[in-house]
């Protein structure tokens, strides 16, 4: 445009006056070759201006095409990223739904187990009461039977003592009589010998035989009395040993009953201990499931908060979004948590291990550390 203005402007003199071509003072005519020069310059300027406008139009057209191409590429990239985000969100929602279903199923199973445990506890309480009643009844019967047997044995013992005293008196009396009779017999035998020597020729044989028979009868009677006293003494000894054996048997039976009752009580206490341990285990499992449920709700809320609202402009991310809950790292952590929980439950159900054992505490520590690692991994990825 500046060149065109310069070409179309009229030439001026040194002081700004226009130079007008005209006849010279001498009356000469100007040269014919200088007349078409301004027209040629004007035509050249016009062609240059037209070329410039054409180049501007072509440049603007190319720029517009590039802009449309770039916008198309950006739109395709945005749709691609948006589809990826929707796929990730769908995967997360599916995972959340499956996890929620598992939690609901687990809670339902825990509720049924709790009902069964409650019913078993009621049965155990009724059984314990019945066993306590039976134990009291058995103790009362044992005490009553023991008292009756003891009183009976004491009565028999008193009777046997009296009999023993009588037998002892009779035995002493019989012994004294035997000794007296033996002395008399010796004396009679001596007298008989003396008498036999003196009146051997005078006494008749029948009288001697009669006296000898009387002495033999008296001796047999004394021997019979001695044998009776000996048998009575042996009977007293047998009765006394029998009474002692009955007392020992009664004590042994009472001790056996008490041992059986103690053993039964120990078994009942062990069953109650196992029951309470299982109740504590179920409570701990419910707490852990509640923690997992809270964590799931928090993750779901966080995922929903990151979901773009329809109608609002969404910025294209500078890097590709990585799936969080479906990453191999988190899957490994979830698998380890499930495996450790299952191992801990199996060990507790055996009844050998309790929550105070080092093995169970070590598994609990691993589970807590895995949950913390999962949370930190999720936060760092998000």
Automatic annotation (TrEMBL):
<keyword id="KW-0175">Coiled coil</keyword>
<dbReference type="InterPro" id="IPR039893">
    <property type="entry name" value="CEP120-like"/>
</dbReference>
<feature type="compositionally biased region" description="Polar residues">
    <location>
        <begin position="1"/>
        <end position="11"/>
    </location>
</feature>
<feature type="region of interest" description="Disordered">
    <location>
        <begin position="1"/>
        <end position="37"/>
    </location>
</feature>
<protein>
    <submittedName>
        <fullName>Uncharacterized protein</fullName>
    </submittedName>
</protein>
<dbReference type="GO" id="GO:0005813">
    <property type="term" value="C:centrosome"/>
</dbReference>
<feature type="coiled-coil region">
    <location>
        <begin position="96"/>
        <end position="130"/>
    </location>
</feature>
<feature type="coiled-coil region">
    <location>
        <begin position="164"/>
        <end position="302"/>
    </location>
</feature>
<dbReference type="GO" id="GO:0010564">
    <property type="term" value="P:regulation of cell cycle process"/>
</dbReference>
<feature type="compositionally biased region" description="Polar residues">
    <location>
        <begin position="25"/>
        <end position="36"/>
    </location>
</feature>
């Amino acid at each position: 445009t500046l060149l065109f203005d310069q070409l179309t402007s009229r030439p001026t003199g040194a002081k700004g006056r226009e130079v007008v071509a005209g006849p010279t003072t001498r009356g000469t005519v100007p040269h014919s070759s200088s007349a078409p020069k301004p027209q040629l310059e004007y035509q050249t300027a016009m062609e240059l201006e037209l070329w410039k406008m054409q180049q501007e139009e072509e440049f603007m057209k190319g720029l517009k095409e590039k802009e449309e191409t770039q916008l198309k590429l950006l739109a395709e990239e945005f749709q691609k990223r948006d589809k990826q985000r929707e796929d990730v969100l769908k995967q997360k929602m599916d995972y959340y739904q499956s996890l929620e279903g598992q939690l609901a199923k687990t809670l339902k199973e825990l509720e049924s187990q709790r009902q069964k445990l409650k019913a078993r506890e009621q049965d155990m309480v009724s059984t314990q009461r019945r066993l306590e009643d039976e134990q009291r009844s058995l103790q009362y019967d044992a005490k009553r039977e023991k008292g009756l047997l003891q009183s009976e044995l004491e009565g028999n013992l008193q009777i046997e003592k009296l009999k023993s005293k009588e037998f002892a008196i009779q035995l002493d009396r019989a012994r004294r009589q035997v000794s007296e009779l033996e002395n008399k017999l010796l004396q009679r035998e001596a007298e008989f010998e003396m008498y036999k020597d003196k009146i051997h020729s005078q006494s008749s044989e029948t009288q001697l035989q009669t006296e000898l028979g009387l002495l033999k009868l008296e001796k047999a009677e004394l021997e019979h009395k001695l044998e009776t006293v000996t048998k009575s003494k042996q009977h007293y000894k047998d009765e006394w040993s029998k009474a002692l054996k009955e007392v020992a048997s009664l004590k042994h039976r009472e001790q056996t009953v008490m041992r059986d009752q103690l053993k039964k009580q120990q078994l009942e206490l062990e069953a109650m201990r196992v029951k309470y341990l299982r109740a504590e285990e179920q409570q701990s499992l419910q707490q852990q499931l509640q923690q997992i449920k809270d964590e799931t709700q928090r993750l779901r809320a966080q995922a929903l908060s990151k979901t773009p609202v329809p109608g609002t402009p969404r910025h294209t991310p500078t890097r590709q979004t990585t799936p969080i809950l479906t990453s191999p790292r988190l899957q490994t952590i979830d698998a380890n948590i499930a495996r450790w929980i299952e191992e801990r439950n199996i060990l507790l159900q055996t009844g050998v291990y309790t929550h105070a054992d080092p093995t169970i505490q070590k598994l609990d520590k691993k589970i807590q550390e895995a949950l913390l690692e999962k949370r930190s991994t999720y936060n760092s990825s998000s």
